[in-house]
Design goal:
Elements (H helix, E strand, L loop, with lengths): L3 E12 L2 E11 L5 E13 L2 E9 L5 H4 L2
Antiparallel strand pairs: 1-2, 2-3, 3-4
Length: about 70
C-alpha cells in the first residue's frame, strides 16, 4: 500500500486504562505521491494489553493510496 511509511509519536498521554498518542505520518504511495498527516490513536487497556484502538485522522492526505 505504501512504498515508504514512517509514524513518529509526538505526544503520549496515559491515564488509568486509557491512552492516546498524537503522531505525524510521513509516507509515499507506490506511485511516489507524498503523504504528510497528523494523526491520533486512542487506546483502552485491559490486563496490561490493548483491548481497543481507534485511529483518527484527516483522510485527504491519504487519497493517493485510498483512491480518489
Amino acid at each position: 500500500m505504501y512504498s515508504r511509511f514512517q509514524n513518529v509519536p509526538k505526544h503520549i498521554v496515559v491515564s488509568g486504562d486509557e491512552g492516546a498518542v498524537v503522531s505525524h505520518i510521513s509516507a509515499a504511495s507506490p506511485g511516489g505521491d507524498e503523504i504528510e498527516a497528523n494523526v491520533m490513536n486512542y487506546f483502552r487497556f485491559r490486563n496490561g494489553k490493548i483491548a481497543y484502538m481507534a485511529n483518527f485522522h484527516d483522510s485527504v492526505p491519504f487519497k493517493p493510496v485510498l483512491g480518489r
